[in-house]
Write a structure and sequence with these properties.
By secondary structure, the chain is α/β, with parallel strands linked by helices. The protein folds into two domains: 186 residues, L-asparaginase, N-terminal domain (Rossmann fold), CATH 3.40.50; 123 residues, 3-Layer(aba) Sandwich (Rossmann fold). Helix content is 30%, strand content 21%.
């Protein structure tokens, strides 16, 4: 039986972290080959191509790092790999996976994973997560699903996954719809298969838009939003109360902000959509839409920022931004699941 070809790349993160001396905190140090050295069964199951792309914590990854990783993954797929696994820090996994998903145009899967415990901790989860991700990446049933996140034996869609706990091994969730599937006994089982949106255009050379992410809170008068607008940001995402609400004072600033660039409002709750026509008070979702703000729909604020950044970086006009944001936020199941 011919073994599948699997590419495994590493950007760093907790899964690669060790300490130089007792009493010191851990920091990235291990290469991808170090990670795979404790998994001889993976080499027996697949022909491996490996690359250490970076050795940094997830919090220090940049947009350019992510696109460089995507170029590597595209290259190995085009050279014959059946799938690719990308290892990175979990701090930004929900954002990087979605950015990659917006631009991933191959049928073969790109699967991201990481770890909540470093390699020297008791019960380190990195090896098991890599094995599960490899199983997903080489499974024919994963084709056509875009970018996936596999961690704790669960398979998540990049557009839905969210880190919802700071330390737990089951930190990643996909509320309210749940994971796409699970890995068990080296098998992949999918419970649902969301549709795929058309991939977005690659950012234009030299385009690095500034998109602010602001969370509203008790007593917010819109001063911070005004400061961001005065600083010349290209767009803003508001992580709003409940179903998409801000204070009346902040709503007044939104009216001015939309004249400078797109303003998207999402829910800060972490689950569920923003509404469109239930509440009508100043600062409600109905009011914000009337002022020209865009609804994130089912997208959380972090995903909405990645989407807006990608559209601005590609030079998309305002009408197209509105159309794409409405589509991606309005149909969590994808274009063929409406």
């Amino acid at each position: 039986m011919t073994k599948p070809c699997l590419a495994v790349g590493s950007l760093g993160g907790t899964i690669t972290m060790t300490r130089d001396a007792d009493g010191q905190g851990v920091a990235p140090s291990l290469t991808v080959d170090d990670l795979l050295a404790v998994l001889p069964e993976l080499a027996d199951a697949a022909d491996l191509q490996t690359r250490t792309l970076a050795t940094v914590p997830g919090a220090s990854l940049s947009f350019s790092d992510v696109f460089a990783a995507m170029d590597w993954a595209r290259g190995v797929i085009d050279d014959g790999a059946d799938g690719a696994v990308l290892v990175q820090g979990t701090d930004t996994l929900e954002e990087t996976s979605y950015l990659l998903d917006l631009h991933w145009d191959r049928e073969q899967p790109l699967v991201l994973t990481g770890a909540m415990r470093s390699p020297r901790q008791a019960g380190a989860d990195g090896p098991a997560n890599i094995l599960a991700a490899a199983t997903v990446a080489t499974s024919p049933s994963s084709r056509g699903l875009g970018v996936l996140v596999t961690i704790n034996d669960e398979i998540h869609a990049a557009r839905r996954v969210r880190k919802s706990d700071s330390v737990a091994q089951d930190a990643f969730t996909s509320a309210p719809f749940g994971p796409l599937g699970r890995v068990h006994e080296s098998k992949v089982t999918y419970a649902n298969r969301p549709g795929r949106w058309a991939t977005l255009r690659r950012p234009a050379p030299g385009q690095v838009p500034q998109v602010a992410l602001l969370e509203t809170g008790l007593g917010d008068d819109g001063a911070l939003l005004q400061t961001v607008c005065d600083a010349g940001y290209d767009g803003v995402v508001l992580s709003a109360f409940g179903a998409g609400h801000v204070s009346a004072a902040t709503a007044e600033v939104v009216s001015a902000a939309v004249k400078h660039g797109p303003v998207i409002f999402a829910s800060r709750t972490g689950s569920g959509p923003v509404l469109s026509r239930t509440y009508g008070f100043p600062g409600s979702e109905e009011d914000l839409l009337a002022r020209g703000a865009l609804s994130a729909g089912w997208l959380d604020a972090r995903k909405a920022r990645i989407l807006l950044w990608s559209l601005l970086a590609a030079g998309s006009p305002v009408d197209q931004i509105r159309e794409v944001v409405d589509a991606h936020g309005g149909h969590p199941g994808g274009p063929d699941q409406n």
